[in-house]
Amino acid sequence: LIPDMDQATNRLWDLLPAGNLFGKIFRNLMLRHRTISHSVLGIWILYKVLEFIVPRILNPNYVNLEIVIASILIGFISHIAADMLTKEGVPLLFPLPFKIGFPPFESLRIKTGKFMENFVVFPSVIIYLVWLVSTRRNELLALIKLINN
């Protein structure tokens, strides 16, 4: 959700109080989709914002703030890495005016919302998650118990 905050359809804005108002303001600051929010600069800005906000909204006596921040950043960076697999690529070195994708040849990358993403990538991710949960059940339960204590 976080890297795509610059899109009007992002569910994050629906979850926040006065989200539509903040969403409009934020989208105007972001210029357009896949700019600052999909760059190294965006990663650094998010890190600094989290470093400021997380200690103010979570109690460090109950939650390891570093793990929370690292988890959010891992999700953010994973999203950007996945977007690098699309034909559009990402402006990783924004404000430099070029986009980076992997593989380097655009013809080998995935077209967003088309057959490859919907019927190969998405089902593969679901199968992987089911496999992960079924093979690591005990570790996941131990982690959940640790979080609940």
Automatic annotation (TrEMBL):
Keyword Transmembrane helix: yes
Domain of life: Bacteria
Span of the signal peptide: none
Family annotation (Pfam families): YdjM
Keywords (A to Z) from UniProt: Membrane, Transmembrane, Transmembrane helix
Listed transmembrane segments: 31-50, 62-82, 115-133
Key word Transmembrane present: yes
Stored InterPro entries: YdjM-like
Name of protein: Membrane protein containing DUF457, transmembrane
